[in-house]
Amino acid sequence: MKLAFLGVGNMAGAILGSLRNIVDDADIFLFDRYPEAMARYADRGYVRAESAPAAVAAADCVIFAVKPQNMPELFAELQAADVMHGKLVVSIAAGIPIKAFTDAFGPLPVIRTMPNTPMLIGEGMIALCRNALVTDEDFAFVRTLFDAAGSTIVLDECDMNKIISVTGSSPAYVFLFIKSIYESGLAQGLAEDGLLDAVCDAVIGSAKLLKASDKTPDELIAMVTSKKGTTEQALLKLEEYRFAEGIHAAMLACTKRAEELGRA
Length: 264
Ligand SMILES: NC(=O)c1ccc[n+]([C@@H]2O[C@H](COP(=O)([O-])OP(=O)(O)OC[C@H]3O[C@@H](n4cnc5c(N)ncnc54)[C@H](OP(=O)(O)O)[C@@H]3O)[C@@H](O)[C@H]2O)c1
Prior knowledge:
Layout: E1 3-6, H1 10-18, E2 28-31, H2 35-39, E3 47-48, H3 52-58, E4 61-64, H4 71-81, E5 88-91, H5 98-105, E6 110-114, E7 124-130, H6 136-147, E8 150-154, H7 160-168, H8 170-187, H9 195-212, H10 217-224, H11 230-240, H12 243-263
Parallel strand pairs: 1-2, 1-4, 2-3, 4-5, 5-6, 7-8
Antiparallel strand pairs: 6-7
This protein binds NADP nicotinamide-adenine-dinucleotide phosphate.
């Protein structure tokens, strides 16, 4: 299967990085309107196309990897060139529904995905859904591409906007959480050297413990929290500041924005 990447930014780069040994470089066609984005891959055997329609015309599968806001102009360019017929569409754009592709290009097989940035180091979490025109064989192939970049789950499309808040955007909340712990450590006078690594290790270790154990998050919280102890004081403060409610409100805002992007 020959692949065309339209938009070669951060996320496309993460997918490309995991495709070694799965797809030959010569079967990958790149197009980005920002020439430096493609120049980053000068040492690879990818084909740098002269336009989005040229990349699409050469490929069987088209990966839409531009920002949702840039999708209308890209659609217009591809419609004018009339090159989408018979292509398998894979979209990584947040919030853009499958229907937007079939409305623009007719009844095509479309796989909508929601990756996340840990995919950059092969630790991604990628949600996928598809329309009825995608064959099992094509879906399995595309899932293999994303399995190489982390772990995958298959969802109904009605859940795709919600999963953005859970796995697509959540790395940002985790980074903010890590930064907040780090900055509090500094504010309390801890030395900067090695502190950020220490916080990362605590977060990674906690997530790994939760995954490896048969305990619930509440049971593991209880294991850390002795009566009248230090953690209890910290948790009472987080409750006072409505930590959990803040996270929920943030995630609802994220899902709402995904819905807005899909309507734009
Ligand atoms: N970042 C995340 O955590 C994340 C997570 C899940 C999904 N996604 C989705 O992944 C997609 C890509 O995000 P990203 O962070 O990789 O974006 P990015 O780094 O900005 O890359 C997109 C690239 O596409 C180019 N582009 C824009 N319009 C184009 C057009 N009409 N034709 C050709 N190239 C065009 C951009 O150029 P310009 O810079 O000139 O616009 C840019 O180089 C988005 O749809 C986003 O919703 C992102």
